[in-house]
Design brief:
The complex is a heterodimer of chains A (410) and B (276). Chain A has 410 residues and is an alpha+beta fold. Chain A folds into two domains: 2-52 and 276-408, no CATH class; 60-233, no CATH class. Chain A contains 13 helices and ten strands. The radius of gyration of chain A is 32 Å and the shape is elongated. By secondary structure, chain B is α/β, with parallel strands linked by helices. Helices cover 42% and strands 25% of the residues of chain B. In chain B, strand 7, helix 7 and strand 8 (216-220) form a beta-alpha-beta unit. In chain B, 44% of the residues are buried. The chains are: A alpha+beta (410), B alpha/beta (276).
């Protein structure tokens, strides 16, 4: 009863200085808002990476020639200089028992031309096992088969974005497009993997038999590949097993003794890459979060500052309250309530503000940012703690006042 | 804890009732302030009893110890030495929180500068002591309205302090002082900031409270004519009581008011002077 009345007094006191209270709360609003927005963006980035990795298929492994494991995965390796051959890939496929499917990947690019429209495309040469490796189904037509690969057929399987851009409503199956002055027949359309904001858009994929890409697009004489993409069987230690066996197998094939630490190839799996990328964003999120936390701390200092001013200004009021029978504890409660109310209100507005910001930013970047309940709870709790912590000293100062001196204060 | 000590009071009050129902019993009160190396003896052994229903004026020049006396009587300060029973309750050694509770229940303050909480209505100002007493909101409003009615401000309850005249503000303060039904009303120079007529009007309020409600009033003043409305005068000098006697020729504020020129008469007199 008494506490409720004291809370009301605190509320009234804040209302009496609306502008001041609002400005003080602004510090907390910005702090909490920043924590929420930045953490949700960080978490959005993590979710994005996870999503992209999931779209790449499960149990997927890679083998790169030389040390080409850059941030962009396998791209950028020159096939001419490469040390990974098609035969290596098939050796892995046949001799490593935990490998369920494998495809070499040979990349090229060129202008895709259909009637009056054309677009630039990255062409990936793959084997008929590609759909198995990537868990990627077709929405129309069929994937090329082993015979197509064998015969270096000029056939293409394209992503839905290509269809949309190039064919504009025409059924693409059976249509002929030109690529590097050669006619190619569209025989299949891949299912959409969804638009993603960063990296290569998977819906823009253009797939051809790797033999066709090597001979007809790149004019290679040596059957080198940019990378091998493998799928392991569903088995807990499949990655580790495969990695060891591939290492032994390729060292033997390339004549590299086992005491050479860095061979001319490297083996990795998607989980590793995803973990590494996620680790980066976690660090980023933590960093952004702590910067925002500093903002929150500054907001707390703002509260303390204004509460100290308020205690001084209201010394006489404190004296009156004490004279009519307020215990020091009630005065402390009153001033503490004021700072906590400010920090909680600021926190609540900050949550809304931060949520709005992250939705807007998500919209803008095309990311799926989401405001996690954890970040709301943590920042809200932190705001409340800031209110208690920075409100305590001014409240204590008020409670310690001597009623006689306080009443005489001008 | 105060609840239990208050219950104890009921027990302890019986002997004091035998002693002429004393509300204030001060016994050899000393108060010494330490200002740096110097000890200032504000009170040097004061013993005095005030009975229920008394109306006492405390007088004396500045530095005589009357303010210190009033702080101690009002439980705003501890005596350095001596015993003080307020309404039978020993308050000389009470803690800060206990002193606050005692002030809340036993003492009603009226100050020279009114000391109302600004930007807060008369009603809410009067409710203030009841908030700290833990009275429910409805009950608070009812009792506050009642107290304001007693001091004649029934139709000014919603006004803010700055919308009230000095005399009206002091009436609000009196309403606030009596709302918790205290053992004493302690008024410190209550007329210091008021003109003559308003001062006498206020004295009338005090005299009525004293006569009709048997309210014990202790009034600190340095104005002789204000002290003349009391029943007993105590004069301080150098930290001691030098005079303590019943008021002879006590004035009635109601009568004085009848003799005093009204506002209109004063205005008329001023206007006449102007034309001459």
């Amino acid at each position: 009863m008494r506490s409720l009345a004291i809370l009301k007094i605190a509320f009234w006191a804040l209302g009496r200085n609306k502008m001041r209270s609002a400005l003080t709360m602004l510090g907390i609003i910005i702090g909490v808002g920043a924590v929420i927005a930045l953490v949700s963006i960080g978490q959005g980035a993590q979710a994005l990476i996870r999503e992209q990795m999931a779209a790449m298929g499960t149990n997927v492994m890679y083998v790169w020639p030389q040390d080409n494991r850059g941030s962009g995965g396998a791209r950028g390796a020159s096939t001419e200089q490469g040390t990974l051959s098609v035969d290596d890939v098939f050796a892995i496929r046949t001799e490593v028992p935990v490998i369920a499917a494998a495809t070499p990947i040979v990349t090229s690019n060129g202008q895709l031309i259909y009637k009056n429209s054309n677009m630039r495309a990255n062409v990936q040469g793959v084997s008929e096992e590609f759909p198995i490796v990537r868990d990627w189904k077709l929405s129309e037509g069929a994937f090329f088969n082993a015979a197509d690969v064998e015969s270096r057929a000029r056939v293409l399987v394209v992503g839905p974005a290509i269809v949309e851009e190039l064919f504009e409503g025409v059924d693409p199956i059976g249509q002929t497009v030109r690529l590097r002055n050669q006619p190619f027949e569209i025989i299949g359309v891949l299912e959409s993997k969804g638009q993603t904001g960063v990296g290569q858009n998977q819906d823009e994929a253009v797939l051809a038999p790797y033999t066709t890409v090597q001979r007809k697009l790149l004019g290679q004489t040596l059957p080198r590949v940019n990378q091998a993409m493998l799928k392991t069987v569903d088995q807990e230690d499949a990655f580790a097993l495969a990695e060891r066996m591939i290492d032994v197998l390729l060292r033997e094939r390339h004549g590299i003794p086992s005491d050479v630490e860095v061979p001319d190839f490297s083996v990795g799996n998607l989980t590793e890459i995803a973990d590494a990328a996620e680790q980066q964003t976690v660090v980023m999120t933590l960093m952004l979060g702590s910067i925002a936390a500093i903002a929150l701390l500054v907001g707390g200092i703002g509260i303390m500052n204004i509460m100290l001013v308020s205690v001084t200004e209201r010394t006489r009021e404190i004296g009156i309250r004490m004279a009519v029978g307020s215990r020091p504890g009630y005065i402390r409660l009153q001033f503490l309530s004021e700072s906590i109310m400010m920090s909680l209100t600021g926190g609540a507005v900050g949550v809304l503000f931060g949520g709005l910001c992250s939705v807007l930013i998500g919209e803008f970047l095309g990311w799926s940012t989401w405001v996690s309940p954890t970040s709301i709870m943590i920042s809200f709790g932190f705001a409340a703690a800031v209110g208690v912590f920075f409100g305590f000293y001014p409240a204590h100062k008020a409670a310690k006042l001597d009623p006689i001196d306080a009443l005489r204060y001008e | 804890m105060i609840e239990t000590s208050l219950e104890a009071t009921a027990e302890a009050r019986r002997p004091s009732e035998l002693m002429n129902d004393a509300v204030i019993q001060l016994e050899n009160i000393h108060k010494t302030y330490h200002l740096g190396d110097i000890d200032v003896h504000a009170l040097r052994g004061v013993s005095v009893n005030v009975g229920r229903g008394e109306y006492v004026a405390i007088m004396g020049p500045s530095g005589s110890g009357k303010s210190t006396m009033m702080n101690i009587i009002g439980c705003l300060d501890h005596p350095t030495r001596g015993n003080y029973l307020l309404d039978g309750l020993d308050v000389s050694q009470a803690s800060k929180a206990d002193l606050a509770d005692i002030r809340n229940k036993k003492v009603g303050f009226v100050f020279q500068s009114f000391n109302l909480v600004s930007r807060t209505s008369a009603l809410e100002n009067v409710e203030l002591p009841m908030i700290y007493a833990g009275v429910r909101a409805k009950e608070r409003a009812r009792r506050a309205a009642e107290a304001l009615e007693i001091v004649g401000l029934k139709d000014r309850m919603r006004n803010l302090p700055n919308q009230l005249s000095g005399g009206q503000q002091q009436r609000v303060a009196i309403a606030r002082a009596l709302v918790n039904n205290p053992a004493i009303i302690l008024a410190d120079e209550p007329t210091g900031a008021l003109d003559t007529r308003t001062s006498v009007e206020l004295m009338e309020v005090f005299q009525t409270l004293n006569a009709e409600r048997n309210m014990t009033i202790i009034l600190v003043t340095h104005e002789h004519d204000i002290s003349e409305y009391s029943k007993r005068v105590i004069v301080f000098r150098d930290g001691r009581i030098v005079k303590d006697q019943p008021m002879t020729g006590r004035r009635s504020a109601a009568e004085t008011l009848r003799e005093l020129p009204t506002e209109e008469e004063l205005d008329a007199a001023a206007a006449e002077e102007m034309t001459e």
